[in-house]
Design brief:
seven-stranded mixed β-sheet, four-stranded antiparallel β-sheet, 51% strand
């Protein structure tokens, strides 16, 4: 079981870029066949999968987010990141980093509010 911890700004202005990082402990981002996800939950909505980055750096995104999102790894820090461009108040949510294709391990989540 790995531990994940999200970090990032709690408040972002509309049209700006939201950048979040997830620090992983108890496991390595480059473990063969490992995968690392970003998922969010908006008020009154269910979980939304944003995207995944695999151990080899390959990324795949939910089509709803693909045009304005990117994910990357910093293997020396055992961190992976999410950048979401052109945010609107509808991007207000709790953002989670999640390990594995089965979403086996979750960070505690970080609240992000988009407001001017």
């Amino acid at each position: 079981q790995v531990q994940l911890q999200e970090s990032g700004p709690g408040l972002v202005k509309p049209s700006q870029t939201l950048s979040l990082a997830c620090t992983v402990s108890g496991g390595s981002l480059t473990t063969t066949l490992s995968s690392w996800n970003w998922i969010r939950q908006s008020p009154g909505k269910g979980l939304e999968w944003i995207g995944v980055i695999h151990d080899d750096g390959a990324t795949f995104y939910n089509p709803s987010f693909e045009s304005r999102s990117s994910m990357s790894m910093a293997t020396h820090q055992n961190q992976f990141s999410l950048h979401l461009n052109s945010v609107t108040p509808e991007d207000t949510a709790v953002y989670y980093c999640v390990a594995g294709t089965g979403w086996s391990d979750w960070g505690q989540g970080t609240q992000v509010t988009v407001a001017s």
